[in-house]
Amino acid sequence: MKKTLCALLALALFLPAAAEISLAPAGTFSDYAYFEDDSARVVEADADYREGLFDIHGNCLIPCEYEALSGYGVEGYYVAQREDGLNVRGALDESGNEVIPFQYGDIRFLSERWALGVTLEETSIRPCDYEDYIDGKNYNAVSYDVYDLRTRACVGYFSYRCEVIRAHGDYLYAQIDDGSTGVYDERLQLVRDDVADPYTAFDTVDGNVVSLSSGEVVLEDHLFGAELGEGLLSLSDGGGKLGICEETGRMLTDCIFDRVYAADE
To answer: Do β-strands 138-148 and 114-123 pair in parallel, antiparallel, or remain unpaired?
Structure first.
C-alpha cells in the first residue's frame, strides 16, 4: 500500500492545476421531463402530454407533437409515435426530420448505419415475438424492413422467419428459424451462408484472424479472441497472452495481457 500511495503522490506533482469550473443556468423544465441517456437532450411534454425534444438550454429541437418520443438506440435518432395504434411508429433525427416513415410497430436501431422497421400483427399464438403488458395482447413480426441511415432509404427486407439480425460494419448477419445464418452486403445481397452465428464477424482460419464478412485476412499468425466494440478486437499470438488490434489489423498493444474486456463508455 505504501508503494501505491507514493506512486499516486508522485503522479499528483506532475498533474496540471485543476481548471476552474463555471456553471451556467439550464432551461426550465417540468417534472415530466427526463434526460436522454448519454446526451444533453431533454424529452419534455406540453400541457396535453404531447412529447418533444429540447436542448439543455430549453430550445425546442422537435416540437411537442408526439404521443411518445424515445431516444434509445443510436444517439441522434428518435423513435416517435403520433397516434395510438399498432403500426404507427417511425423515426426522426434530432432536428425532427423523418428518417423512417410512420408505418411500423417497432423500430430497432442496430448501429449508426442500420435500422429495422418491424411490421407487426396481432396473434393469439404463444410464444410470440412481442408481448404488450399494457393491453395484454400478443404480436408477431410480419417483416423487417432494412433502412440505411446514411442514405435514409429502405434497401430491402427480411422475412418473419428471422430470429436474430445483427449489424457488423457495412454487413448484416441474419439468423433464420432453422438456425442458419447468412451474411448480407449493403444492397442486402447474400454474400455467404455458412457462418456459425450472427453475433461474431471474425474467426481464426488457418492460424490467421479473418473477417467472416469479406473473407479477408485481418492479421496473419494470430488467433481471434473477441470483438470489443468500437472497431477493436482482442487476439493472441499463440503464447497465451492477449493484445488489442483494430478491425483493419493495426496492432494497438502487444499480446501481454491475461484478460481483455470491453468497457462501457
So the answer is: antiparallel
